[in-house]
Amino acid sequence: MQEAIINGLSGLAAGTLNLQWSNLVMIGIGLMLLYLGIKKGFEPLLLVPIGFGAILVNIPLAGLMDEHGFLRIIYDAGVITELFPLLIFIGIGAMTDFGPVLENPYTFLLGAAGQFGIFLTLILALLLGFEAMDAVTIGIIGACDGPTVIYVASQYAPHLLGPVSVAAYSYMSLVPLLQPPIMKALTTEKERIIIMKAGRKSVSRTTKILFPIVITILGGLIAPMGLPLLGTIMLGNLMRESGAVARLTKAAENEIASVVTLLLGISIGATMSGPVFVQSKTLIILALGLLAICLDTVCGVLFGKLLCVITKGKVNPLIGAAGISAFPMSARVVQKEGFKYNRKNYLLMHAMGANAGGQIGSVMAAAVMLSVLKAMGVI
Fold first, then answer.
1. Rounded CA separation 16/49 (Å)
2. Upper half-sphere CA count for residue 324 (Cβ side, 13 Å)
3. How many CA atoms lie within 13 A of 57 on its CB side?
4. Which of 188, 354, 356, 371 is the Cys-Cys partner for 110 at CB 3.0 to 4.6 Å?
5. What tens digit of pLDDT does each residue of 312-332 get?
6. Which residues contact 277 (CB under 8 A, 6 or more apart)?
7. How far apart are CA 271 and CA 269, in angstroms?
8. pLDDT tens digit string along 242-288?
């Protein structure tokens, strides 16, 4: 009996004895993510489950990511199969109003320009020696679109899912800090105070219904590898605009999105095991992801400056910063900055157009890269 008690007590300490320094580092990062989500309000719906998942997976001998562990079951069922990010995209489509893009079609170009940083970072990652699929996954962080990053990583670079997902959502929450200095540095005071006129008063219901259908067909023909992403976001938007399936739209926006977000977040956290995550390569990935988002902002603002010249001063270049896919956070940043320099300036609707265009642009950027790689025989 005494021997059994001693063996039992020694078993209680087994987790502590098997704890590695890298596990401690990741538990600390998990606690930091919880702090940012709970205390600072930075993307709490994702950072809280991600942070808690990171803590769970770094407790030794729990076996949560073993073959029959509950985190492994969730991960295999929703991340490896692409199910979670695609369900999230249906919800995003159901919550997104593409009316501002249709009212000001030129803002779609800003959404496209806001993706150039992805390709520039892709090239840099290749030059640094990353494999093609790893480089694509790193570059797509610049989309500032978590579900797109997760979709690409889970299918083509699952070993990078943890760092790229954390980078995407962390940097997205930091957009209000990252973008304003870039916007100010690249524009003149004269450009920042430009007041933009309102676009067309309204877009017909028929146009709004046809938009997701046409975009799905054209986008699928141009870059078929990205059709799951594009198709799901457009399905959600079609449900919203048709008004024929209000119950499904509400479920996609609320219950389904909430449950999937929880399961997706904890699955991402489950990939953040210390021995795998704590590497010099991870720091390089985080740095490249930050660079990608900054370059996207730079390209968007510079294209805004070009439109300003073409239109003879009718376009405020600040709206170009909203070309990234951080919807609607980036549009709000543009409105705040524009109002700071000119109290009569209301750029929100124009910025929302660029931001909504960025939603589509980020998906198309991923689709184009994947389709090119498939044509080259890489995947």
1. 24
2. 34
3. 31
4. 354
5. 989 999 999 998 877 778 888
6. 22, 26, 162, 163, 271
7. 5
8. 999 999 999 999 999 999 999 999 998 898 898 888 888 888 998 99
- For the chain, what percent of residues have pLDDT higher than 90? 42
Cβ neighbours around 194 below 10 Å, total: 21
Smallest CA-to-CA distance from 363 within 228, 251, 273 is with 228
**Angle formed at CA 238 by CA 236 and CA 239, multiple of 5 degrees:** 65
pLDDT in tens, 220-237: 898 888 889 899 999 999
What is the average pLDDT across 88-94? 92
Of 103, 142, 95, the C-alpha closest to 123 is: 142
Residue 260's pLDDT is 94
Under 8 Å CB-to-CB from 126, ≥6 apart: which residues? Answer: 132, 135
Q: In this structure, what token pair is assigned to residue 62?
A: 């729990």
Work out the pLDDT band at 365, boundaries 50, 70, 90. Answer: confident
Q: Which residues contact 256 (CB under 8 A, 6 or more apart)?
A: 87, 90, 91
| CB of 266 closer than 8 Å to CB of 37 | no
Token output for 215 = 């975009």
Q: ω into residue 176 within 30 of 0, thus cis?
A: no
CA distance 274 to 100: 44
- DSSP-derived 3-state class of residue 256: helix
Q: Could you identify the residue written with the tokens 């704590």? A: 278
Cα–Cα distances in Å, from 108 out to 115, 228, 313, 357?
12, 21, 19, 5
Are 333 and 322 contacting, i.e. CB atoms less than 8 angstroms apart? Answer: yes
Domain boundaries, the chain: 21-375
Residue 379: alpha-carbon gap to chain centroid: 23
Predicted structure pTM score: 0.83
Band (192; pLDDT cuts 50, 70, 90): very high
